[in-house]
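Subject — a protein and its fold

Tokens — whole-number codes for backbone shape
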Amino acid sequence: MNAWPARLSEALEALRLPSAQVLVLVNLVPILGALFLGWNAFDVILLYWLENIVVGCSTVIRMLFAQGRSATRVKLNGRSVDPGSRKDKVSVTLFFTAHYGLFTLVHGVFVLLMFGSQSSFWIHHEFLALKLFFVALLVSHGVSLWRNYFGRQEYLEKGFADYFWKPYARIILIHLTVLIGASVAQSVPSPVTAIVVFVVIKIVIDLAMHLHSHGITPGSRTN
């Protein structure tokens, strides 16, 4: 019974971390777009798909700079990769780039086929918002990289193979969020209400994954 207040307190305290604050602020942008620019829920779905690209780029950086010992075993061309081999690190990173890139492309095609016809961005070819939000996502993930991965020296804790599968779990969760968001958008008369629900779900998922990924607790300190 007392666990929930404690967890809520920890979550609120964790929001004092700069990387978590930036993450939340960027996720709130779609609400502003809905209020002042007329964005609909399907526009927001396209916006959040862009984050898959940023996550992929961030993962490539993490893999290339990782200096720890890999706990995850990855096979390439039928053999287990050497966690200490620079050549294997580059090879696995290139394989990840191709594999994840194709996975993201297929996911993007699915999103466009399902929701593109209902997105004002796609219908009216208004891509400026997509570009600006993409930059905001780069800033958000860049802050996390700088303060957590490099600032807290996380690159010393894990090997390159440990990062290989992490983005896929995120895509699955975001895909579920997309389906929930689309369902809400069709059942709620107010587009702003639908977007608020969608954004709140997304923030909860992002924060949970962010804090877990970086091993951040309320007592943690960042540089």
Q: What stands out?
A: The longest strand covers residues 75-76.
